[in-house]
């Protein structure tokens, strides 16, 4: 059994689909079905090649059996992940063990790995506020408390967003809401607006300016702040519509003039 396991490991490490399938077919003929399935359970790539092979030959019963083996592995992975998360004191250690033992060859490895990195980051911040918080909640926290940290610093919201592949739109929306809690209107402007021709302002955001105005109004931004973003709504009709909706009478007058 050991030599056959090594044979399959070698084929998988080569990454050659034909070699993997050849070895799998050999193992299917030379091993008892229970041992064959047991061996495949830890080699997802081999299972995928074998399932594809069975499908092209309409060997549906065998394909169903193999897929059940694959499903049982997923269930086991999720169960082990759940167990690892149960103890806050030993969560990181147990998750790393779980990653090594149950997700080493899984396509879900990246998600477990990212979760571990998030927990490590939360621990490094050293606040109970982040206990059990998601990536987005963590981003909101660091935007609120560490916005002015060096962008290459581990505590920087930019670094957290980069590590967890938070897209620009989501980053700007979370940052806008977090910064508004501190009335950090200048920081929001730096995030969303840049200088244009002749000292004017132009949009540096993916977020639609009408949504920005509505949200800032909801977050109690002063009128002079709202005015900046009103002027960046290119569509005059939309600007008028938003001004009327928010009962910003000065903006209604400015658009009408």
TrEMBL record:
Keyword Cell division: no
Protein's UniProt keywords contain Nucleotide-binding: no
GO cellular component: early endosome; late endosome
Source taxon at top rank: Eukaryota
Pfam families assigned: Vps16_C
Transmembrane segments: none
Sorted UniProt keywords: Cytoplasmic vesicle, Endosome
Location relative to the cell: Cytoplasmic vesicle; Early endosome; Late endosome
Vps16 C-terminal domain segment(s): 1-191
The protein, known as: Vps16 C-terminal domain-containing protein
